[in-house]
Design brief:
The complex is a heterotrimer of chains A (298), B (361) and C (284). Chain B is an alpha/beta fold and 361 residues long. In chain B, 33% of the residues lie in helices and 25% in strands. Classes of the chains: A mainly alpha (298), B alpha/beta (361), C mainly alpha (284). The complex binds adenosine-5'-triphosphate and magnesium ion.
């Protein structure tokens, strides 16, 4: 494997897969897997934190639910039904809220995976290994996605038991398909944030800003039509808006989407765009940081 | 890049490697409103830029244990970081194990083991075994091979019985051993060790030095070791490079370096409580001497300070110096003539002291 | 050491401690302008979804069923006031604990704790500067709300509102002291702050009136100073009532303030004594 050596240097053997081939891909996948396992181990080493994070999604959901129900004095909203064909406030909010945690995956878990290593002091040690730096970020993505999925399942069970949800069981599979397409674009987004958080000192503010903007521009607790037209158009650049509309079409009885279009094509285009853009910026910041020598600074 | 003078037998070779850092001033947001603005414009380029590496050209042979010696801020760590692709140099390049550090980063990384300073370069919340297994996967080792290798290394570091404890419960020295074990996981032919014994007690330092020597002798590793303990470099290294202010001042084996200081050129007086202006005072009394320098010892712990008179006709001034010290009520505990250490060589070459409070090892 | 010298100068020197702490923290504030802008603007982003949600669900700006429990049908000013007062809670929950954590991380905490002054005064300095910046944030958020969300404010109620906010802040100081005490001892005090944030978020009438909670939830809500402050401020601004009309809320706030501050001081001094003997501070 000692290819491309500088002319005349025939030295120690190096056995490390590189380039586009199956052995190398397998090695990178294993690095992603091990990174996600490592993230679990570290997370579980802080049990109090882990517990708190486990209940927090439910806590954030509650005000949306209670507030919504107080507003309409029950769980039926005439106005909502006029807009999207279904008036069940609880089901509407819950189906929207499900993706909130996954926005968190992209923005916080992935976005701050590299920053976290900086905090642990291990970043340089990781960056001198031949594994791609992306694998570290993707390892975190895997960890956080699994984590969120478990959390969402528990949340679903609790809300279902307490309120009951009017969902079409048959729609779950196609909704999952849309979900996966959404996640791919969010991963691209997460890669972008992880790059930004490495070069910007106040990276958390950028992340918080992106998080809030994505939240406002997504039809999480209201249909898209209540947004001003400009905002509705802007929401098309985030995968969450088309994905939510699409998932609700499959999951909720009588749901008439507020914006119509080819959701699958839209999501595929967003996937390609966000992943490529994310990787590009990631690559550029990697070079920038190695030139500046600001890798280990927190 | 043309790799001139390249004869192919060096494990590490640098070509005019140069790295500059811009100094940042932290002045707050409204800082730009303040008066300093004018002043700053006037400041010359040189005062705003740190030249951490200045056209470094070194060649390290295969299987050599090479020491890089220099005071704080000399650029040692920067060199190690450039070689390990953590930093991209501004100018020049280096070839590591036959791979260009600018173009073939993955192969360079796969060829290297790195131990870099810092309290936390491992996960304190994971066990030693977990740490090593994780990094093995980052070095793209197959799982079975990784397992075997981790056990072997734990055995070698005599930490097998504690392998399942979290690193937060380890001592600094034990953590350092795990850091060294990590650098050996993929059995690289080249090791870069940045101050591997910093902050360790003498017993641990000795153990680690033994291991470094063994890696070089038995396993034929090429090792670049940075340190500012000259004893360490003297004992361990086949060859030593002095680096000061980003420049290589001299490269040779320790004995040859020491031979550059002639017997008549060195007088060392160990004493307690020398007055602060002793350097200037003696300098005025001893014409024809290159350098007179005071190395403070940790006197509260019984280590005396040293006054070194180096260069020119040092030997001729022994009695003058001793008389002068007596007059100032300085207690002299011993006198050394003509037995130079690496530090003396360094002082002679640069006029700068290598480290305050020497003699850790 | 001549003890009386210390005692004589103590009033003056304590004031100096508070003062220099305030100056130091304000300098930090100016050194991180983005953080400043963040807190001045972002709480707005957090309540925008609630505004839009309300409009989508009721199709207008008034909700009769909301009026039944809240006393006002106008839900938008209701949640705007909730969000603004809640940001005082957030800054005092995280501000002081965070600033202690920061000192611990920087390594300056040991020096501060080994200085001969009463550490609680340092904390008061921190808290004062915290409130100062919180007030700047609140003013900015209020201005944005008046400009963009049609909030209305008459000049006459500004003084009473400030009075209520001061009562709220005093209670929060006590809470912050309790958290500071915890963060001296427990590495995971940050999680405690989060947990408290959740309690305030769910059980105080930040987004919806307390009456819409089940009975046990209402009881928890009634233990929190933010609940009374919110009821009082909303009565003043939205229901146009005057101070005497809300004497019960004021009384409740005073009682809670007293309890919180006494507990806070006591716990903090106790913890500090304990950390000194067990030496767990730099263990961070
Ligand atoms: N990331 C950076 N940004 C700015 N300046 C830097 C950076 N890294 C190093 N420097 C500067 O470069 C010079 C060389 O530093 P370096 O860390 O290489 O020294 P060193 O020889 O390793 O010293 P020590 O013995 O203290 O470890 C110093 O003046 C340092 O301030
Ligand atoms: Mg160094």
């Amino acid at each position: 494997m000692n290819k491309n050596r500088v002319k005349g240097h025939e030295l120690g053997e190096v056995t490390c897969p590189t380039g586009f081939n199956w052995t190398n891909l397998k090695a990178e996948l294993r690095a992603i897997w091990e990174s996600s396992i490592k993230a679990w181990k570290i997370e579980l080493a802080y049990p109090v934190s882990f517990l708190r994070q486990s209940v927090s999604p439910l806590i954030i959901l509650l005000p949306f639910l209670i507030y919504g129900m107080v507003l309409v004095g029950g769980r039926y909203s005439e106005n909502l039904e006029r807009m999207v064909g279904t008036g069940d406030v609880v089901t509407f909010i819950f189906t929207g809220y499900v993706i909130m945690g996954f926005i968190g995956t992209a923005v916080w878990a992935m976005g701050f995976s590299i920053r976290g290593e900086q905090w642990f002091g291990t970043l340089e040690s990781i960056f001198v290994t031949p594994t791609s730096r992306l694998s570290l970020v993707l390892g975190m993505a895997l960890h956080s996605t699994v984590h969120q999925s478990i959390g969402t399942a528990v949340e679903f069970a609790i809300i279902y038991a307490v309120f009951g949800l009017g969902l079409k069981i048959g729609g779950i599979l196609p909704a999952l398909g849309i979900f996966v397409l959404m996640m791919l674009a969010l991963y691209g987004f997460g890669i972008l944030v992880s790059a930004l958080s490495l070069v910007l000192k106040e990276g958390w503010i950028v992340a918080e800003g992106l998080h809030s903007i994505m939240m406002i521009l997504s039809p999480v607790v209201y249909p898209l039509v209540v947004l001003p037209t400009v905002a509705q158009q802007a929401s098309a650049i985030f995968p969450t808006a088309p994905a939510l509309v699409g998932m609700r079409v499959f999951l909720i009885e009588n749901y008439q989407p507020e914006v119509i279009g080819n959701i699958f094509l839209h999501l595929l285009a967003l996937d390609a765009a966000w992943i490529l853009f994310g990787i590009l910026v990631f690559h550029l910041t990697d070079i920038y940081v190695r030139k500046k020598g600001s890798l280990e600074k927190y | 890049m043309d790799y001139t003078e390249d004869d192919g037998t060096y494990s590490i070779q640098t070509f005019d490697l140069t790295k500059r850092f811009t100094k940042k001033k932290h002045r707050g947001i409204f800082g730009f409103l303040r008066k300093e603005r004018k002043q700053r414009k006037q400041q010359s380029e040189s005062s705003r830029v740190t030249v951490a590496l200045d056209h470094i050209n070194i060649k390290i042979r295969s299987g050599e244990l090479f020491g890089l010696l220099g005071p704080n801020g000399a650029g040692k760590t920067t060199l190690v970081k450039c070689l390990s692709t953590i930093l991209i140099p501004d100018k020049g390049t280096a070839v590591v194990n036959g791979f260009d550090i600018r173009k073939q980063t993955s192969m360079v990384r796969a060829s290297l083991g790195l131990v870099i300073g810092g309290e936390r370069t491992l996960y304190w919340k994971l066990t030693a075994r977990d740490n090593l297994m994780y990094f093995a996967s980052l070095y793209k080792m197959p799982r079975n091979q990784a397992k075997e290798r981790v056990e072997e290394l734990l055995e070698k570091m005599q930490l097998s019985d504690r392998a399942d404890e979290r690193l937060e419960d380890y001592s600094t020295g034990m953590r350092q051993k795990i850091a060294i074990a990590r650098s050996l996981l993929h059995d690289p032919s080249i090791l870069l060790l940045d101050e591997p014994t910093l902050g360790l007690d003498p017993t641990f330092s000795k153990q680690i030095r033994g291991q470094i020597r063994e890696l070089s002798d038995k396993h034929g590793k090429t090792i670049l070791l940075t340190t500012h303990y000259m004893d360490e470099a003297d004992q361990l290294c086949d060859r030593v490079a002095f680096i000061n202010d980003g420049k290589v001042v001299a490269v040779d084996d320790p004995d040859s370096l020491k031979a550059t200081v002639k017997e008549t050129e060195l007088v060392e007086i160990t004493c307690f409580n020398p007055p602060l202006d002793v350097e200037r005072h003696l300098k005025s009394l001893c014409p024809g001497v290159d350098i007179i320098t005071l190395v403070h010892g940790d006197e509260t712990k019984g280590n005396p300070s040293k006054i070194k008179i180096i260069g020119g006709n040092a030997e001729e001034h022994i009695s003058t110096a001793i008389d002068a010290l007596r007059k100032k009520n300085v207690r002299i505990s011993s006198l050394n003539v003509g037995v130079p250490t690496l530090e003396d060589v360094f002082i002679k070459l640069t006029g700068a002291k290598l480290a305050e409070g020497e003699g850790r090892g | 050491m001549p003890r009386n010298v210390l005692l004589q100068s103590s009033a003056k020197s304590n004031f100096f401690i508070v003062w220099s702490e305030v100056v130091k923290n304000l300098k930090f504030l100016l050194a991180y302008p983005i953080v400043f802008v963040f807190w001045a603007i972002f709480p707005i982003f957090w309540f925008i979804p609630f505004v839009l949600q309300g409009q989508a669900f009721v199709g207008g700006l008034q909700s009769p069923s909301f009026g039944e429990v809240a006393g006002t049908e106008e839900f938008i000013p209701f949640i705007i006031l909730g969000a603004i007062l809640n940001s005082y809670v957030l800054t005092s929950l995280y501000g002081m604990g965070e600033s202690i954590r920061r000192e611990a991380y920087r390594g300056t905490l040991d020096y501060i704790l080994s200085s001969p002054c009463n550490k609680a005064f340092i904390l008061i300095g921190k808290a004062l500067s915290e409130s100062f910046s919180s007030t700047l944030y609140a003013i900015s958020q209020l201005a944005i709300s008046i400009l963009f969300f049609g909030m209305e404010l008459t000049l006459g109620i500004i003084m009473p509102v400030i009075f209520i906010i001061i009562l709220l802040i005093l209670g929060l100081y006590g809470l912050a002291l309790i958290l500071a005490a915890a963060s001296l001892r427990y590495k995971q005090a940050h999680d405690m702050a989060h947990a408290l944030e959740y309690v305030f978020y769910v059980f105080s009438p930040v987004r919806y009136p307390v009456a819409s909670l089940p009975l046990w939830g209402q009881i928890i809500g009634r233990l929190l100073p933010l609940t009374y402050a919110l009821i009082a401020v909303r009565s003043l601004i939205l229901l146009k009532q005057n101070l005497p009309a809300i004497y019960l809320e004021i009384l409740a706030l005073l009682i809670i303030d007293g309890i919180m501050i006494l507990t806070g001081f006591y716990l903090f001094n106790w913890m500090e004594e304990k950390t000194k003997t067990s030496g767990t501070i730099s263990h961070y």
